[in-house]
Design brief:
- The chain is of the alpha/beta class and 292 residues long.
- The protein has eight helices and 15 strands.
- The protein has a six-stranded mixed β-sheet with strand order 10-9-8-11-15-14, sandwiched between helices. A five-stranded mixed barrel has the order 1-2-3-5-4.
- A hairpin with a 5-residue loop joins strand 14 and strand 15.
- Helix 1 crosses helix 8.
- It binds guanosine-5'-triphosphate, magnesium ion (MG) and zinc ion (ZN).
- The site of magnesium ion has 4 residues, from helix 4.
Length: 292
C-alpha cells in the first residue's frame, strides 16, 4: 500500500484535480467519479509516479454546497465552506431569482450567506436599492464594493479572514476581479485556470481556492445562469425564505402549500406588505419548478 499524504483540493481541472500538499501542487486523478470531489475537500492521496498523485479518500466534510446537474442529480460545488458571498452588479443586471436560490440553499445548510454588490462605481437604480433594503432587513449582510475603484474592499477583506468563503453568482459580475483585488500577490495564476474566450473575456472555468494574505481561504467560482435548487424539497424551499418562519403554522390548512390556498398566512402577509411581495412572487416561481 502506497504511503498516504493529506492535501487540500484547490481546483477541479478538466485533466485532473489540483491538490495542495505541503506548499506544492500535485495533479491528482481519482478512482472515484471525478465529480464527487470538490474544491475545498481535504483528501488523502498517494504518489502515482512522475509527480502525479491519486486521491484515495475524501475526509469528512463540515459543509457542502451542491448544485443540480443532469438527470435530477446534484453535484458538489465546494466543500468545507463557511460562507457564500453571492456577487451581483448593476451590469449584468442582477438576477434576484438566482440570489434567492443561493439564500434558500444556505438557509438549509450550515453555510451562512452574504450579498456583495460589485461595480459600486456604477449608478444604482432605485429598483435595485429597494430590493437590497429588503435583504438587509432580513439580516443578510450586504457589502457594496468596487473591484475597479477599490471602494468597500477593506471591509470585505476583513470579513473574509479566518474562514472559508466562496464567490458565486452570474457571469461577468466581477467575482474574479474582486478575487484579484483581494489577493495582491500576483503569483496566483488566474489565467492558467481561466480561458480567454474569443470575446477577449476571462471567464472562469473551474472553481479555484486561494489563500488570503491575512488568513482565510477564498474560492472563486465560474458564473452560473440558472443555479437551481439542488435537492431542496418543498418544505425546505419554504424554510429557505427566512421571513416566512413566523407565519408557519398559522395557515388555515396544515398542509397549506402557500400558493393559492385559502387562508394562507404567508400570502396574506405578502399582500399586506408585512413580507416583501417580490420575494413571495419569486418563491412561487421557484415552487412552480418543483416536481408536484
Ligand atoms: N465598472 C466596473 N467593472 C468591473 C468591476 N469589477 C469587474 N468589472 C468588469 O466586469 C467584467 C467581468 O469581470 P470578471 O471578474 O471576469 O467577472 P466574473 O464574475 O469573474 O465572471 P465569470 O468568471 O464569467 O463568472 C470585466 O470586464 C471587469 O473589468 C467594477 O468594480 N466596476
Ligand atoms: Mg471569473
Ligand atoms: Zn400557507
Amino acid at each position: 500500500m502506497a504511503e498516504l499524504s493529506s492535501g487540500l483540493v484547490i481546483a477541479h481541472l478538466g485533466q485532473g484535480i489540483a491538490v495542495e500538499a505541503q506548499g506544492a501542487i500535485v495533479l491528482c486523478q481519482t478512482l472515484r467519479k471525478l465529480e464527487t470531489v470538490a474544491v475545498g475537500d481535504q483528501v488523502l492521496w498517494s504518489a502515482s509516479g512522475s509527480g502525479l498523485g491519486r486521491i484515495e479518500s475524501i475526509l469528512p466534510r463540515r459543509s457542502l454546497l451542491l448544485r443540480p446537474s443532469r438527470n435530477n442529480k446534484v453535484r458538489p460545488v465546494a466543500a468545507n465552506i463557511d460562507q457564500v458571498f453571492v456577487v451581483f452588479a448593476v451590469e449584468p443586471y442582477c438576477d434576484f431569482l438566482l440570489l434567492d436560490q443561493y439564500l434558500a440553499i444556505c438557509e438549509n445548510s450550515t453555510i451562512s450567506a452574504a450579498l456583495v454588490l460589485n461595480k459600486a462605481d456604477l449608478a444604482l437604480p432605485e429598483a435595485i436599492a429597494t430590493e437590497l433594503q429588503h435583504y438587509q432587513a432580513l439580516g443578510y449582510p450586504l457589502y457594496q464594493v468596487s473591484a475597479k475603484s477599490g471602494v468597500g474592499l477593506a471591509e470585505l477583506s476583513a470579513v473574509l479572514q479566518q474562514q472559508v468563503s466562496i464567490f458565486t453568482g452570474q457571469s461577468g459580475v466581477g467575482k474574479s476581479s474582486l478575487t484579484n483585488a483581494l489577493i495582491p500577490d500576483k503569483s496566483i495564476k488566474t489565467n492558467t485556470i481561466s480561458a480567454t474566450t474569443k470575446h477577449g473575456r476571462h471567464t472562469t472555468t473551474a472553481a479555484t481556492l486561494y489563500h488570503l494574505p491575512q488568513g482565510g481561504d477564498l474560492i472563486d467560482s465560474p458564473g452560473v445562469a440558472i443555479f437551481g435548487l439542488a435537492d431542496l424539497n418543498e418544505g425546505e424551499l419554504v424554510h429557505g425564505y427566512r421571513e416566512f418562519q413566523p407565519y408557519l403554522g398559522q395557515c388555515r390548512f396544515h398542509n397549506c402549500r402557500h400558493v393559492k390556498d385559502m387562508g394562507c398566512a404567508i400570502r396574506t402577509a405578502a399582500e399586506s406588505g408585512a413580507i416583501s411581495m417580490p420575494r413571495y412572487t419569486r418563491f412561487l416561481k421557484l415552487r412552480e419548478k418543483m416536481p408536484a
